[in-house]
Amino acid sequence: MSGSAMSAATTNPGGATAPPLNLPAPGARERRRLSPAFGLAAPGTLFVVLALMGPLALMFRYSLNRFVPGQMMVEALTLANYQKFFADSYYQEVLATTLWVSGLSTLLCLLAGFPVAYFLVRQASDKWKGRLLLLVILPLLMGNAVRTAAWMVILGDKGLFNAFVSTLGLSPVKLMYTPTAVVIGLVSVLLPFMIVTLQSIIEGIDANLEAAASSLGASHLTTLWRVVLPLALPGILAGTMLCFILSMNAYATPVLIGGPSFQMMAPAVYQQVAKAMNWPFGAALAFVLMAVTLVLTTTANVLVQRRYRRWSE
Amino acid sequence: MSDVVLQSIVKRYDATTAVDNVSLNIRQGELVALLGPSGCGKTTTLRMVGGFIPVTEGRILVGGRDLTSLPPNKRNMGFGFQNYALFPHMSVGENVAFGLQMRKLPKADIARKVKTALDRVKLSHLADRLPKQLSGGQQQRVALARALVIEPDVLLLDEPLSNLDAQLRNEMKLEIRNIQQQLGITTIFVTHDQDEALSVADRVVLMRAGRIEQMGAPDDLFERPASHFVAEFMGVTNLLAGTLESVGRFRLKSGEVVAVPVAGLSGDLALALRPERVILDGTDEALLANTLSAEVEFATYRGLVIDYRVRLPSGVTLIARRPSPAVGGPAPLSPGRAVRVSWQPEAGTLVPV
Fold it and tell me: Chain A residues contacting B, CB < 8 Å?
């Protein structure tokens, strides 16, 4: 109450009582500053709305249509496609596979990525940091399909890995077309995202905090657990969400490394839309995938936010 | 609590030597200030004592125990950081409790000790606040409480006052000194501010380019600087190069011959003369053995004092400091005015260049 009264008294929003000078009122100047920013943001915003929300809305509309073999898509307003997903255990299994493969890949990325990011920030000299970071990002400069093809060469039944295994006198391992291979492939794709995200957040943690913890008697591990990890939480969340979303929607890796009998959601959507020509069901699958991803990442976000909001704001 | 001994400490980075053969004995309960310009190795030395930087050569002993190769968490030292380094995600109380938790003390003991430590810095009422909700001075107090609550053998403070404004700095300076004396804790205090070092320390160690330039009691360094560098760093603005002509007679490079105290020095020397000791248009001739004529070049008004730059006929300039009219000083002199410059011989100190 008193706060708003005070702000009303100290600012001059209307400009009605502005001094009779040829100067803009303080409020007006601030408003003028904002407008170029709006102007700059407008094209991007417009593009996002048209190019992203438009097709999305269209797809959602499709998901409510009916599929009639021979006629393809028939205009309708039905939830039958969604009902089909929840009635068919096959598709639920596809979703379950997508979830655990994504969850595991993300977890592995976090476990492998954190030490690398931490090393990059705290140990590498400035000269080497840039080079190593470039090395981390290098795989991203390659196309997804090319990279996945390379994994096929490595993981194939007569691939590099099994060639190595047989030189050790061991029997070859079946890797190609297994979920293990898909997880390996996904981790290799996603790890750079995790490392770069974590690197930037760890960079912002004052090294003196770790020195302080150490001088107070904390071991390296305790310092990591009590000081570094809590402060890196926003970055861990961002990196985890990024990797999870990307692997939930992965296409090339599960198709090429997982093989025909391994099904994840994104390939299933493609299957329906491009092969079965069942646009309504494909759209419904896409929306289920999106909804599940959204719910999980939002929940994670809320849970983590609740922990670090207190001191981060 | 214990005495600290640095034995020929050396720190080398590839080609550069940051700390070059520093030896120092610090008595139990003594407060030693490591003073020097940035890059002189004072912070590196402190961090080596704290264990954050490994030493290249030499040994560090605390209470006779060799700590050289121990990590910081095994040294039992309290460290105060320049930016305080309070854990932003922990409350004031949790920050102070951290070191006690590491020592696995019972919860009740921790609560009691945290309370005592915060009482000591008058912050118990803010125990539940987060660091960012505190002012700079309060943060500094929390950092101090956090470093002291673990009952360290040694307290190490890295520029603890440099982030505070002038008034708060004075207050904290006294408070740190006070607590240090109460606890009788051996303390190393790093600073680049000579005034801070003089007013807080039992002993001042002035460093330059990784070496100890001079160490001694505050008045030793201030009144008896052993070198040109020390005199300059201690605020002597008049350093006149020259050579001894005979005992007590000093010939400036510019030709003037002045009377100086007897000193066992020879070769290229400088006469260090504080601006406060330079008298303009003095009247008591008996005290003013050295009197030269000069001209006021310009005056700098500094509130309590006015600094005059005066030029001798030979071109040499001197700074003379006089009380301003605000504190009952004489009327200001305007530039261009002819004045007599004088000082007592014993006001000057000869230092090697």
Answer: 206, 208-209, 211-219, 222, 226-227, 230-231, 308, 310-311
